[in-house]
Design goal:
Elements lengths: L2 E5 L2 E3 L5 E8 L8 E6 L6 E6 L6 E3 L7 E6 L4 E6 L8 E7 L4 E2 L3 E5 L2
Parallel strand pairs: 2-11
Antiparallel strand pairs: 1-3, 3-8, 4-5, 4-9, 5-6, 7-8, 9-10, 9-11
Length: about 110
């Protein structure tokens, strides 16, 4: 069974940083691209960043480009999202996602507020 365990969320002030982690199990992690999404109460789920299976290439939403960095550790089956210069509009629940099969982590809350 494909499973994800996410961690690293929390509350920070604007300009602060957080690093999210997503540990995967139940599939050949190093063979699949992975993504981070986020969802606020008002909006549908938004793609934040994605990374290729080998980690050599990544894409970002315009809203986070230059501030967030996605990475992965294929030895330890882990996906990361380093978030710098956080803004109040980054407040959301963040999810790691595998497209095939369609599988979501449980989500981790990030709150940016002064």
């Amino acid at each position: 069974e494909v499973q994800f365990v996410e961690s690293g969320g929390g509350s920070v002030q604007p300009g602060g940083s957080l690093k999210l982690s997503c540990v995967a199990s139940g599939f050949a992690f190093d063979s699949y691209p992975m993504s981070w999404y986020r969802q606020t109460f008002e909006k549908k789920r938004e793609l934040v960043a994605s990374i290729t299976s080998g980690g050599g290439s990544a894409d970002y939403a315009d809203s986070v480009y230059g501030r967030f960095t996605v990475s992965r550790d294929n030895i330890n089956d882990a996906l990361y999202l380093q978030m710098n210069d956080l803004k109040p509009e980054d407040t959301a629940v963040y999810y790691c996602h595998l497209a095939f099969p369609d599988t979501w982590g449980q989500g981790t809350q990030v709150t940016v507020s002064s």
